[in-house]
Amino acid sequence: MRALGEAVAPARSLLEEIGDMTVLTGRTISSALRPPYPYGEELVAQFLFAVRLVWLPLFITTLAISYGAPGLQASNFLTLFGALDRLGGFFVLAAIREIGPLITSIVLAGVAGTAITADLGARKIREELDALQVLGVDPVKNLVVPRFLALILVTGLFDIYALLFGLFGGILAAVVNGQRLGPFWATFFANTTTVDLWGSLLKTMLFGAIIAIVCCYKGMTASGGAEGVGRAVNQAVVISFLGIGSFNYVFTQLLLATHPNILVIK
Hints:
The chain is mostly helical. It is 86% helix and 0% strand. The chain has eight helices and no strands. The chain is elongated, with a radius of gyration of 21 Å. The termini are far apart.
């Protein structure tokens, strides 16, 4: 029985953490909607902090991946069939629906999410969070809510940013392969719908919410000194990636099931 208990302990711990994160999500949303709203200044500070950290890594990553993976590799494949003009339509599937949201959330989790976890973890180790509660200050409303809202807003903004530079990577790949841009734009706009755009934006903003909850939770529950903070940062990144991947599958399936017309490639 002891061996069985040790075997299921990691799974039980994971389920407990998921439950705690779900509770934290509910508390965060209710705190964000319930007055008063003392977190305006902190919200702006966290938003600008994330923008300052993320814009350059996201630019480099999006341009490189969009040019290399769906750009050069897809163009080489399409050239075999004399269908390089379909590259624009392919970028609707690759850049708008998947690469833009995923790269945005991954970079944001790795850069801004780790900073949030380390900041809150250090405050937890220094017992600042306990001191706030003693003073009657709600840590969720004053610390979690502004970071939650800031990451939702900044992921939506950076999704548009990533889509633009991802599209530039496709244009660059078409030019490198000697393709005129007229057919690229024709197939791109023929396959792009408002569903693709709002679906990409909504999915990315929900990714931001997942990152914020995971990173705030791991930071506020850190223990064991500086080593514990580092461990919390590593766990926050891994859990964020797992949450993003799992939610991406569910969201994409729901979007395709409710809007089957976007499955038709023109």
